[in-house]
Amino acid sequence: VETPKVPGASVETAARVDQVGRDLLSATPFFPVEPTFHTAARSEVFVTHPDLTGVLVSEGLAKKCETDARLAAVLAAELG
Fold first, then answer.
1. pLDDT over 90 percentage in the chain
2. How far apart are CA 46 and CA 31, in angstroms?
3. Is the pTM above the cut of 0.90?
4. Region label for 41, one of left (φ > 0), alpha (ψ between -120 and 50) or beta (otherwise)
């Protein structure tokens, strides 16, 4: 099952979430699956794992994570 893509998230925020997620995975070579990272155009702060391979982050949460390190920590916690 593919993670749903939510239209309307800013391209910059979606690209940042995807890049930080990919960087996190490259730093973790023994991760058993290859998740995808998506951004929902929502101002609420949330992160969810709607299926076995997808992580969905709200634009509000991505913007609240002022640094890539903070966003990586959120993504790592969700993947954990």
1. 62
2. 23
3. no
4. beta
